Amino acid sequence: MNPNPLLKKLGFSDSDRVVLIHADDVGMCQASVQAFADLTAFGLVSCGAVMVPCSWAPLAGAYAREHPEADLGVHLTLTSEWEHYRWGPLSTRDPRSGLLDEQGYFPRRTEPVQEKGNPRAVRRELEAQLAHARGLGITPSHVDTHMGTVIHPRFLDAYIGTARKYHLPAMILRQDETALRQMGLNPLTAKIAARWIERLEREGFPLLDHIVMMPLDQWEDRLELAKEVFKTVKPGLTHFIIHPAADSPEIRAIAPDWRARVADWQVFQSPQLRQFLQQEGIHVIGYRAIQSLMR
Fold this sequence. Notes:
This protein is of the alpha/beta class. It has one domain (5-294): Glycoside hydrolase/deacetylase (TIM Barrel), CATH 3.20.20.370. Helix content is 44%, strand content 12%. The chain is built from 13 helices and 7 strands. The protein has helices at 5-9, 30-42, 57-66, 110-116, 119-136, 156-165, 177-182, 187-203, 222-231, 249-254, 258-267, 271-280, 287-294, and strands spanning 17-26, 47-50, 72-76, 143-145, 210-213, 236-242, 282-284. Strands 1, 2, 3, 4, 5, 6 and 7 form a 7-stranded parallel β-sheet that branches. Helix 9 runs parallel beside helix 12. The radius of gyration is 18 Å and the shape is globular. The relative contact order is 0.18.
């Protein structure tokens, strides 16, 4: 595709590597909120998103009220993946919505939601999560998606429509149909998504070029791994995902991949990583900068 027109609007050249270093799962547990606060204070992590159906979202809201400059979006959530720690919809308890499993929580996996979720119920839930975030004191800077669940032909209208309604940037890649299929999307999803992307680009809606994520199955030598992952970042605008959590009994009990999450919390407070990004010429921005262009 042609260079992203958003780069020049943000003051960059077409060849610049511009990265949104994004903390996922804020509010999933206390450790995630503490990690976001620590990393934001350090200054390398530029943004994050809150899982508002989760138990510790009110703490994220308290942080947002105390730090109104914080770059926090809403991590739109339709799944609840952990074994012993669960959450469910804010908007409904009706099994006909397709948003509940047999225990009354969100399903653990993406596929049951995508197969059974009622698109109208999904839209109501997305709007309920945004409203709840605002009620907690969060002024969202963007929306993205937990486990990619809303990136599905049946839900794209709700996801993109909600983002446009509230003038929020959304985690959407500006890729053509071939590239989307190469990323693993099935042919129908890739075709529908490509049509949406073409339409949004024509309308000037901000889009991303790349999504990169720190793997959760590798925790040793995390600093060197982070350097290697950043070396793969290409010119354009990249949403760079990490899952930081402060070390605590809680995160150890919840997440089998807790070591990688704790390692993200540690490494992204590293002066060595900050220096490496400077040497690589990688520019770090947040979603507030993109949101300001939409206004």
